[in-house]
Amino acid sequence: MNLQRFRICVFASGRGSNLQAIINAIEEKRLDCEIAFVLSNNSDSGALEIARKKNIPAIHLSEKVFHKNSFEESLIDVLDEFKPDLIVLAGYMKLIPESIIKKYRNRMINIHPALLPKYGGKGMYGMNVHRAVYESGDKFSGVTIHIVNENYDEGKILFQKKVDISDCASPEEIAEKVLLIEHSVYPEVIQSIITGKIKLED
Ligand code: GRF
Closest ligand 1 atom, CA of 113? Predict the structure, then answer.
Protein backbone atom coordinates (compact mmCIF):
# COMPACT_ATOMS: atom_id res chain seq x y z
CA MET A 1 0.00 0.00 0.00
CA ASN A 2 1.36 3.42 -0.89
CA LEU A 3 0.17 5.65 1.92
CA GLN A 4 1.10 9.28 1.40
CA ARG A 5 3.22 10.74 4.17
CA PHE A 6 1.91 13.62 6.28
CA ARG A 7 3.27 16.87 4.85
CA ILE A 8 4.18 19.91 6.85
CA CYS A 9 5.64 23.23 5.77
CA VAL A 10 7.63 25.50 8.03
CA PHE A 11 7.47 29.32 8.02
CA ALA A 12 10.48 30.96 9.70
CA SER A 13 12.05 34.41 9.66
CA GLY A 14 15.28 33.90 11.55
CA ARG A 15 18.03 31.46 12.39
CA GLY A 16 15.82 28.36 12.09
CA SER A 17 16.93 26.32 15.09
CA ASN A 18 13.40 24.94 15.54
CA LEU A 19 13.36 23.97 11.86
CA GLN A 20 16.66 22.16 12.45
CA ALA A 21 15.17 20.37 15.48
CA ILE A 22 12.23 19.24 13.32
CA ILE A 23 14.59 18.00 10.57
CA ASN A 24 16.66 16.12 13.18
CA ALA A 25 13.54 14.46 14.57
CA ILE A 26 12.48 13.35 11.07
CA GLU A 27 15.93 11.96 10.34
CA GLU A 28 15.98 10.14 13.68
CA LYS A 29 12.50 8.75 12.95
CA ARG A 30 10.92 10.40 15.99
CA LEU A 31 8.73 12.42 13.65
CA ASP A 32 6.91 10.76 10.79
CA CYS A 33 6.36 13.43 8.15
CA GLU A 34 8.03 15.22 5.31
CA ILE A 35 8.73 18.92 4.95
CA ALA A 36 7.08 20.04 1.71
CA PHE A 37 8.76 23.45 1.77
CA VAL A 38 10.23 26.12 4.01
CA LEU A 39 9.10 29.70 3.58
CA SER A 40 10.68 32.88 4.86
CA ASN A 41 10.07 36.61 4.51
CA ASN A 42 13.79 37.07 4.99
CA SER A 43 16.05 36.18 2.05
CA ASP A 44 19.10 35.55 4.19
CA SER A 45 17.45 33.72 7.07
CA GLY A 46 19.25 30.76 8.54
CA ALA A 47 16.05 28.77 7.99
CA LEU A 48 16.27 29.06 4.17
CA GLU A 49 19.94 28.12 4.35
CA ILE A 50 19.14 25.01 6.40
CA ALA A 51 16.38 24.02 3.96
CA ARG A 52 18.63 24.43 0.90
CA LYS A 53 21.31 22.23 2.46
CA LYS A 54 18.70 19.51 2.92
CA ASN A 55 17.28 19.93 -0.59
CA ILE A 56 13.96 21.09 0.82
CA PRO A 57 12.28 23.70 -1.42
CA ALA A 58 13.24 27.05 0.16
CA ILE A 59 10.89 29.88 -0.74
CA HIS A 60 11.48 33.55 -0.10
CA LEU A 61 8.24 35.52 -0.13
CA SER A 62 8.08 39.03 1.21
CA GLU A 63 5.49 41.78 1.32
CA LYS A 64 8.35 44.15 0.57
CA VAL A 65 8.72 42.59 -2.87
CA PHE A 66 5.02 42.18 -3.66
CA HIS A 67 1.96 44.38 -3.33
CA LYS A 68 -0.27 43.23 -0.48
CA ASN A 69 -2.72 41.42 -2.76
CA SER A 70 -0.14 39.75 -4.88
CA PHE A 71 1.74 38.65 -1.76
CA GLU A 72 -1.37 36.87 -0.50
CA GLU A 73 -2.04 35.37 -3.91
CA SER A 74 1.52 34.15 -4.20
CA LEU A 75 1.31 32.58 -0.76
CA ILE A 76 -1.93 30.84 -1.69
CA ASP A 77 -0.35 29.63 -4.95
CA VAL A 78 2.56 28.11 -3.00
CA LEU A 79 0.17 26.39 -0.57
CA ASP A 80 -2.01 25.13 -3.44
CA GLU A 81 1.02 23.76 -5.22
CA PHE A 82 2.54 21.91 -2.24
CA LYS A 83 -0.68 21.13 -0.34
CA PRO A 84 0.75 20.79 3.17
CA ASP A 85 -1.42 19.09 5.81
CA LEU A 86 -0.10 21.42 8.49
CA ILE A 87 1.59 24.84 8.52
CA VAL A 88 4.19 25.05 11.27
CA LEU A 89 5.29 28.55 12.30
CA ALA A 90 8.74 28.57 13.87
CA GLY A 91 9.83 32.12 14.52
CA TYR A 92 7.82 33.63 11.64
CA MET A 93 7.66 37.34 12.43
CA LYS A 94 4.90 38.41 10.04
CA LEU A 95 1.17 38.45 10.59
CA ILE A 96 -0.47 35.70 8.52
CA PRO A 97 -3.08 37.12 6.09
CA GLU A 98 -6.67 36.39 7.11
CA SER A 99 -7.42 34.54 3.89
CA ILE A 100 -4.68 32.03 4.72
CA ILE A 101 -5.91 31.63 8.29
CA LYS A 102 -9.42 30.89 6.95
CA LYS A 103 -8.09 28.43 4.39
CA TYR A 104 -5.90 26.68 6.97
CA ARG A 105 -8.22 27.03 9.98
CA ASN A 106 -7.09 24.50 12.62
CA ARG A 107 -4.21 23.44 10.41
CA MET A 108 -1.66 26.05 11.43
CA ILE A 109 0.35 26.03 14.67
CA ASN A 110 2.87 28.32 16.34
CA ILE A 111 5.44 28.03 19.09
CA HIS A 112 5.77 30.85 21.62
CA PRO A 113 8.68 31.10 24.07
CA ALA A 114 6.62 31.84 27.20
CA LEU A 115 3.56 30.62 29.06
CA LEU A 116 0.65 32.22 27.21
CA PRO A 117 -1.62 34.09 27.81
CA LYS A 118 1.15 35.90 29.71
CA TYR A 119 3.79 37.63 27.60
CA GLY A 120 1.95 37.31 24.30
CA GLY A 121 0.44 39.65 21.72
CA LYS A 122 1.78 42.30 19.40
CA GLY A 123 5.42 43.17 19.98
CA MET A 124 5.97 40.13 22.18
CA TYR A 125 8.49 38.16 20.19
CA GLY A 126 12.12 37.16 20.45
CA MET A 127 14.11 38.77 23.25
CA ASN A 128 11.23 41.16 24.06
CA VAL A 129 9.44 38.18 25.61
CA HIS A 130 12.41 37.05 27.67
CA ARG A 131 13.19 40.59 28.82
CA ALA A 132 9.61 41.04 30.03
CA VAL A 133 9.71 37.72 31.85
CA TYR A 134 13.06 38.58 33.43
CA GLU A 135 11.85 41.99 34.58
CA SER A 136 8.69 40.47 36.09
CA GLY A 137 10.77 38.38 38.46
CA ASP A 138 8.71 35.26 37.61
CA LYS A 139 10.32 32.03 38.73
CA PHE A 140 8.93 30.11 35.77
CA SER A 141 8.71 30.67 32.07
CA GLY A 142 8.03 28.05 29.44
CA VAL A 143 6.88 27.09 25.99
CA THR A 144 3.41 27.28 24.48
CA ILE A 145 2.29 25.62 21.26
CA HIS A 146 -1.03 26.89 19.98
CA ILE A 147 -3.31 27.04 16.97
CA VAL A 148 -2.95 30.20 14.91
CA ASN A 149 -6.05 32.36 14.56
CA GLU A 150 -6.63 35.98 13.53
CA ASN A 151 -5.12 37.42 16.72
CA TYR A 152 -1.47 37.26 17.75
CA ASP A 153 -0.86 34.40 20.22
CA GLU A 154 -4.56 33.85 21.01
CA GLY A 155 -5.46 30.57 19.31
CA LYS A 156 -6.35 27.44 21.28
CA ILE A 157 -3.45 26.23 23.42
CA LEU A 158 -2.42 22.69 22.48
CA PHE A 159 0.54 22.19 24.78
CA GLN A 160 2.54 23.98 27.46
CA LYS A 161 5.69 23.14 29.34
CA LYS A 162 7.00 25.06 32.33
CA VAL A 163 10.68 25.85 32.74
CA ASP A 164 12.26 26.79 36.07
CA ILE A 165 14.18 30.01 35.46
CA SER A 166 14.94 30.90 39.08
CA ASP A 167 18.65 30.35 38.42
CA CYS A 168 18.74 32.58 35.29
CA ALA A 169 20.72 35.78 35.74
CA SER A 170 19.72 37.48 32.46
CA PRO A 171 17.07 37.45 29.71
CA GLU A 172 19.66 35.71 27.49
CA GLU A 173 19.95 32.83 29.96
CA ILE A 174 16.16 32.48 30.02
CA ALA A 175 16.11 32.45 26.20
CA GLU A 176 18.72 29.71 26.08
CA LYS A 177 16.91 27.52 28.60
CA VAL A 178 13.52 27.96 26.94
CA LEU A 179 14.91 27.33 23.43
CA LEU A 180 16.30 23.95 24.46
CA ILE A 181 12.83 22.92 25.60
CA GLU A 182 11.31 24.24 22.35
CA HIS A 183 13.61 21.96 20.37
CA SER A 184 12.49 18.89 22.27
CA VAL A 185 8.75 19.59 22.46
CA TYR A 186 7.91 21.01 19.00
CA PRO A 187 8.70 17.78 17.10
CA GLU A 188 6.88 15.77 19.80
CA VAL A 189 3.76 17.88 19.52
CA ILE A 190 3.76 17.70 15.71
CA GLN A 191 4.04 13.91 15.98
CA SER A 192 1.10 13.86 18.42
CA ILE A 193 -0.94 15.89 15.93
CA ILE A 194 -0.08 13.42 13.16
CA THR A 195 -1.11 10.41 15.28
CA GLY A 196 -4.26 12.18 16.49
CA LYS A 197 -3.21 12.24 20.15
CA ILE A 198 -3.51 16.01 20.02
CA LYS A 199 -6.66 17.23 18.27
CA LEU A 200 -6.63 20.53 16.43
CA GLU A 201 -10.38 21.06 16.09
CA ASP A 202 -12.21 22.87 18.88
C1 GRF B 1 11.72 30.76 19.02
O2 GRF B 1 12.07 31.16 20.32
C3 GRF B 1 10.22 30.67 18.88
O4 GRF B 1 9.57 30.32 20.06
C5 GRF B 1 9.84 32.06 18.51
O6 GRF B 1 10.88 32.51 17.68
C7 GRF B 1 12.09 31.80 17.99
C8 GRF B 1 12.59 31.19 16.71
O9 GRF B 1 13.88 30.64 16.85
N10 GRF B 1 8.50 32.11 17.95
P11 GRF B 1 14.50 29.79 15.70
O12 GRF B 1 14.51 30.63 14.42
O13 GRF B 1 13.68 28.54 15.52
O14 GRF B 1 15.91 29.49 16.14
Answer: 4
Do residues 18 and 12 make contact, with C-beta atoms less than 8 angstroms apart? yes
- Residues 174-191 pLDDT 10s: 999 999 999 999 999 999
Give the per-residue pLDDT at 67. 67
- Give this prediction's pTM: 0.95
Q: Which amino acid is at 103?
A: K
- Is the CB of 171 inside a 6 Å radius of any atom of ligand 1? no
Contact 139, 162 (CB under 8 A): no
112 catalytically annotated: yes
Sequential DSSP letters for 133-160: HHHHT-SEEEEEEEE--SSTT-SPEEEE
